Amino acid sequence: MDNLAGIPEKVASYLLEIKAVKLNVKEPFTWASGIKSPIYCDNRRILSYPEVRTYVRDGLCATVKEHFSGAEVIAGVATGAIAHGMLVAQELGLPFIYVRSAGKDHGLGNQIEGEIPVGKKVVVIEDLVSTGQSSLSAVDALINAKCEVMGMVAIFTYGLERASQNMESAQCPLHTLTDFNTLVKQAINSGFLHHSNMETLEQWRENPQEWRR
Question: Which of 24, 127, 161, 195 stands 20 to 30 A from 202 (CA)?
C-alpha cells in the first residue's frame, strides 16, 4: 500500500461487512469510562477475517510510514491492539512491546511487556479511540519508562471532542484509518443505517456524557 487514498472508506465498509459495528438505541452499550453509547465498534472481529486483517495491517503500516518516519519501536495497547500492533511491527521489521492498563499484581508486576526501549522513538497502535483516556494511560507509561512517544495510530475513532482535547493536552498526535463520520456515511449508503437514526447519533455525539442520563 503506497498511499492513504481511499483507506477511510474501505476500512469503514469492511467494518460494516464483518458486522464489527453494532447499533442499539434502546439498550445502549456501556464503555469502560461509563459513557452510554448507541453505537459500538468491535475491532477484534477484524482478526477473524484474513482479507480485512491484511488490509488494516497495511493501512496501519502506511500511516506509520507517512506520519512517523523514523519510528524505532511499535507498542500495542492491551488488549485490543496487541495483535494489530504485532502485525504492524512484523511487517515493518521493528521491535514490538505492549502496554497494560496497569502493572500486573503478580510475577514481575510489569505494565510494559517486552524490552523497554529507553530513549527510542515509539509509535503506539490502538484498535479504537473513544475518550482517549485508556490510550493516553499507555502513552504515560511509556513516557515514564523514558521512551520517546512520537504519536498514535488507531483503526477507528468516534471523534469525540473530549478525545481531541485529551490528545492535544498530552501532545500526542493521533492518526486513524477511519472515523465516525466516514462510518456513518458508509452505513447509510449501504443500508445498514437509516437516516432516521442520524438525529439520535448526533445528539449522542454532542454530549455523550449526558446522553440517556
Answer: 127
CATH number for the domain that contains residue 160: 3.40.50.2020
**Neighbour order of strands in the sheet with 96-99:** 112-113, 96-99, 73-77, 121-129, 148-157, 174-179
In a domain, 156, yes or no: yes
Q: Kindly report, residue by residue over 34-91, the tens digit of the pLDDT.
A: 899 999 999 999 999 999 999 999 999 999 999 999 999 999 999 999 999 999 999 9
Cβ atoms of 74 and 94 closer than 8 Å: yes
Q: Which residue has the cell 483516556?
A: 133
Split into its structural domains, the chain has a count of: 1
Planar angle of CA 96, 54, 40, nearest 5 degrees: 85
User: Longest Cα pair distance anywhere in the chain, in angstroms?
Assistant: 52
Answer for the pair 114, 96: CB distance below 8 angstroms, yes or no.
Answer: yes
Q: Which amino acid is at 76?
A: G
Contact 73, 97 (CB under 8 A): yes
CA distance 195 to 185: 10
Cell of 26: 434502546
Pick from 120, 126, 128, 124: which is nearest to 145 by CA?
120
Rounded CA-CA distance 178/11 in Å is 6
Cα 167 to chain centroid, rounded:
13
